[in-house]
Amino acid sequence: MTLALIDYGAGNLHSVANALRAAGAEDVAITANPDVVRAADRIVLPGVGSFRACAEGLWGIHGMVEAMTERVHVGGAPFLGICVGMQLLATRGLEHGVTRGLDWIEGQVQRIERTDPEIKIPHMGWNDVNLGRKDPAQGLIDPGEAYFLHSYHFQPDDGATVAAMTDHGGGLVAAVAKDNVVGVQFHPEKSQGYGLSLLARFLEWKP
């Protein structure tokens, strides 16, 4: 099984690759080649930094978005977005102006509102991951504690795509899912046993 870890200049790729291997992945291809993505059995899109910079990096690789879309939406490959890689699933991001996202899960990414002066932004550190009554991720996400680091959050238009929530002065979306696409706002590669368990389940996930 080949797993394509997309290299578009925005992500702690080697930490994610090491975590995937620790979770059981045998063939992790760190790649900026759309042909490798088009042939992969599973795809992971990491992301660190601003929505705009990540979007520009991804669209800056000729044919990459088309290859991802073809492999995921036509070929049915399971897809995992991490942190800004999850946010890029949205229709648009509102960081440094309006920037288009992949629009795979309709919604927008906007700044976390400070509702309590005690609440610090960015949302950084360990926090609970709580599941809702519905499970669009089909058992992929477990309740537990994960490591977060973000100042912007994903607000999906359809609440049925919310796979998990966390609380930081109010509810924030921790994970989204739709069909064979899942995204997590937290960092599995920094979330110790909880994160490795999630990645191991993703490697076996058959949506």
TrEMBL record:
Enzyme Commission code(s) on record: 4.3.2.10, 3.5.1.2
Catalytic activity: 5-[(5-phospho-1-deoxy-D-ribulos-1-ylimino)methylamino]-1-(5-phospho-beta-D-ribosyl)imidazole-4-carboxamide + L-glutamine = D-erythro-1-(imidazol-4-yl)glycerol 3-phosphate + 5-amino-1-(5-phospho-beta-D-ribosyl)imidazole-4-carboxamide + L-glutamate + H(+); L-glutamine + H2O = L-glutamate + NH4(+)
Domain Glutamine amidotransferase residues, every copy: 5-202
Main location: cytoplasm
Keywords (A to Z) from UniProt: Amino-acid biosynthesis, Cytoplasm, Glutamine amidotransferase, Glycosyltransferase, Histidine biosynthesis, Hydrolase, Lyase, Transferase
GO BP terms: L-histidine biosynthetic process
GO molecular function annotation: glutaminase activity; imidazoleglycerol-phosphate synthase activity; lyase activity
Annotated Gene Ontology cellular component terms: cytoplasm
InterPro entries, alphabetized: Class_I_gatase-like, GATASE, Imidazole-glycPsynth_HisH
UniProt xrefs under Gene3D superfamilies: 3.40.50.880
The keyword Protein biosynthesis appears for this protein: no
Pathway: Amino-acid biosynthesis; L-histidine biosynthesis; L-histidine from 5-phospho-alpha-D-ribose 1-diphosphate: step 5/9
Superkingdom, natural source: Bacteria
Active site, per annotation: C83, H187, E189
Compartment(s) of residence: Cytoplasm
Subunit relationships: Heterodimer of HisH and HisF.
Function: IGPS catalyzes the conversion of PRFAR and glutamine to IGP, AICAR and glutamate. The HisH subunit catalyzes the hydrolysis of glutamine to glutamate and ammonia as part of the synthesis of IGP and AICAR. The resulting ammonia molecule is channeled to the active site of HisF.
Protein's name in the database: Imidazole glycerol phosphate synthase subunit HisH
Originating organism: Novosphingobium resinovorum
Record gene name: hisH
